[in-house]
Amino acid sequence: MTICEQTLSKPSDLPVYLKLAAVTMVWGGTFVAGRFLADGLSPLLAASLRFLLASVALLLFVRMARIPLVRPSARHWLQLLLLGFFGIFFYNLCFFYGLHYINASRASLIVALNPAVIGLASWLLFKERLNRAKVAGIAICMAGASMVIVSRAPQLLAGGADAWIGDLLIFGCVLGWGIYSLFSRELNQTLGPVQTVTYSILLGTVMLWIACIVRGEVSVTAIANLGAPQWLSLLYLGVLGSALAYIGYYDGIRKIGATRSGVFIALNPLTAVILGALLLDEPLTLAMCLGGGLILAGIFLCNKPLARARKKGI
Question: Is-contact 231 37, C-beta < 8 A?
Fold first, then answer.
């Protein structure tokens, strides 16, 4: 088979892009749902309930899809523990505690740093090629996300007296997610995204509940007092925002890499703005539209080099 035939026979990455866009749009609503729960549950209990629901959803999915859970090797167990700790336990402690100090808009502004952190770490740790197009795409995405968030809530830049604590905690989310994204490379290839996500979430859930019990934060009364909106928020966070979205994200990493997948996270604030305009009649300003255009341009630019290479091959 010639190089031209190999290039033509390679499937398009468009389904991967669409899946990642859907995943990050789902994540765009998690900050609102998390903020909604922050006043009714302790951060640790909220995170524990979220991933208990995620674990149940994943086990049901695996059973219904008739996917047999493989037995990981000792090395794989260590890697899964690392993912469970940083991607589930550490990330969610930072997420829920951080939302006690700052609002969802300010938190999403910090999380917009994710593509840059993932891209830089990929280059430093795994020698992933970070060409000018990728760097420019990441920078444009960050600029667009910042424009969308700040134009939506200009007051967030002021913050309160303890806002720096929330900022630091949410930046912990960025670091935790970077580790969760980058150190899944081998597991994604050997175990696959479904197995990797299932085991890492199960392990992270156990860690959360152990910490919750040790700290005495398990409150049957608080759980019993949750209303329908709070349970819907938990279901959204657990089933859509964790179980299904994590599988889609890891599948994207396996197919196009961590840097090109991570840049889609910039869609989170854009999704929140669009949903606010459609469902809550919130104003859609010119700055928001321009920011959204920059996000889409940055994602395209970050993923364009591969398309150009294929074109040359043809």
Answer: no
Three-state DSSP at 71 gives coil
Closest CA to 136 of 285, 298, 265, 266: 298
User: For residue range 45-73, what is the model confidence (pLDDT) as tens digits?
Assistant: 888 999 999 999 999 988 888 888 888 89
Q: What domain range is 228 assigned to?
A: 13-313
Q: How many residues comprise the chain? A: 314
- Please state the domain count of the chain: 1
Question: Does some domain include residue 2?
Answer: no
Quote the distance between the C-alpha of residue 32 and its chain's center: 14
Residue 5 domain flag: no
Identify whether 4 is part of a domain: no
Handedness of CA 94, 96, 100, 106 (dihedral sign): positive
If we measure between CA atoms, which residue out of 296, 295, 306 comes closest to residue 257? Answer: 306
- Name the token pair of 42: 């302790």
Distance between CA atoms of residues 177 and 114, nearest Å: 8
Decide: 10 and 310 in contact? Cβ < 8 Å.
yes
Residue 90 lies in a domain: yes
H helices within the chain, ranges in order? 3-9, 14-28, 30-38, 43-64, 74-83, 91-98, 104-111, 114-126, 132-152, 163-182, 185-190, 193-214, 220-224, 228-235, 245-256, 258-262, 267-279, 286-313
Q: In the predicted model, is pLDDT for residue 313 greater than 90? A: no
